[in-house]
Design goal:
Length: about 180
């Protein structure tokens, strides 16, 4: 299987032979009116039964600003169209390394937060890859996230959520973080 990114889900015998993709990306922490955060359940087709939860977001297209990417990704992944001015941040930056069974994705990420009214999630604009890997979505309470038991990326989600409530601060530098189903 492949999609417009060229991802083919061909798993090499030696994980060291996985192709490496790099990009800039934007992630959006979406907080609803009942103080719940929207997360998508993601998976690696080459590692059956393993899932984790992530914020909406994705790679920047040529010529896009971070805020424009956030607006586009929100519309594509959730169906919600937001105004750039509604974004709080940037809250944090990091260099994320995602080792999957078929590839390694390295990306410079920037995190923003947006508060939204109640809305119906629309996944009809998901890419072929997202349709294959995303298993579902749900709104999480702070208590549910604090309880653990689920693999949530980024690990500092609650810290970033709290950071959005404070005065304007420079983005928190989270450094290099690996989030992998098959370590790099």
């Amino acid at each position: 299987m492949s999609d417009e990114s060229g991802r083919r889900y061909e798993i090499p015998d030696d994980p060291a032979d996985r192709p490496v993709r790099t990009r800039r990306a934007v992630r959006v922490i979406v907080v609803g009116p009942d103080d719940r955060v929207l997360l998508f359940e993601d998976s690696d087709p080459g590692v059956p039964g393993v899932t984790w939860w992530v914020t909406p977001g994705g790679g920047m297209d040529p010529g896009e600003s971070e805020r424009t990417t956030a607006v586009r990704e929100m519309a594509e992944e959730t169906g919600y169209v937001l105004d750039e001015d509604a974004l709080v941040g940037p809250l944090a930056t990091r260099y994320a390394v995602h080792g999957y069974s078929d590839q390694v994705l390295e990306q410079d990420e920037t995190f923003y937060l947006v508060r939204v009214p109640a809305f119906e999630i629309d996944i009809s604009a998901h890419t072929e890859e997202e349709q294959l890997t995303l298993q579902g979505h749900r709104w999480w309470t702070r208590t549910e996230i604090e309880a653990g038991g689920a693999w949530i990326w980024p690990e500092q989600l609650l810290e970033l959520w709290d950071r959005a409530a404070g005065p304007t601060l420079p983005p928190l530098g989270l450094g290099r973080q690996e989030e992998s189903t098959v370590p790099v």
